[in-house]
Amino acid sequence: MATPISQEPSGPCSEQEQMNEMSRNFYYVRKREVRMFPGATALLKMSIQKYMAKYEVEFMDDDQKLRVLLPLDVNREDSDKKFQLLMEMPDNMKKAKLLTFFRVDTIKEFEKHVQMTEISILGLERRNTCTSRRGRTSKINEISSNTQGRTGKTETNSGRIEELRLRS
Predict the structure, then answer these.
(1) Do both 128 and 95 map to the same domain?
(2) Which parts of this chain are annotated as the region Disordered (predicted)?
């Protein structure tokens, strides 16, 4: 049975994990104008083992697409190592001759950036909602204590306080 959305963990940790997972994926698509000769995939795989050993490389869709992933442990923990791997990736792909047959899948990369932006916006909205709820609750408590102190009547303002609670 699926967990309702409201009960799923939605804190900053899960948002950060989603962002980390998305940011470690890089997508490439075959160049249409360059033909692959028979056995080219096997040679590319050997070249990948030599020059791209630090990365996870996966052929997809009958060798028409390529996905390069940063190692999960480096992506989570060491930002300096992650930056170094990101900077070395184009050179290593050239050495492995992958850029001869593949180019950046711009559509997939834009989709990835849109998804990451949506996650960031949802996280900011969630944090803003939590912050504004805390502000409303403290304002309600302040109004309640002020009315009790001045008039001694809580009955006349209880409707207003209840209305403020319902709004928040």
Answers:
(1) no
(2) 132-168
Collapsing DSSP to helix, strand or coil, 55 comes out as coil
Which of 78, 104, 130 delimits the end of a domain? 104
Inside any domain, residue 34: yes
DSSP β-bridge partners for residue 153: none
Each of the 168 residues of the chain gets a pLDDT tens digit; together they read 444 444 444 455 688 888 888 888 999 999 999 888 888 888 999 999 999 999 999 999 988 999 999 888 877 776 788 888 889 999 999 999 999 999 999 999 999 999 999 988 988 888 887 766 666 666 666 665 655 555 554 445 666 666 666 665
Percentages helix, strand, coil for the chain (3-state, rounded to 5) are 65, 10, 20
Q: Which domain holds residue 135?
A: 121-167
What are 124's two structure tokens? 């900011």
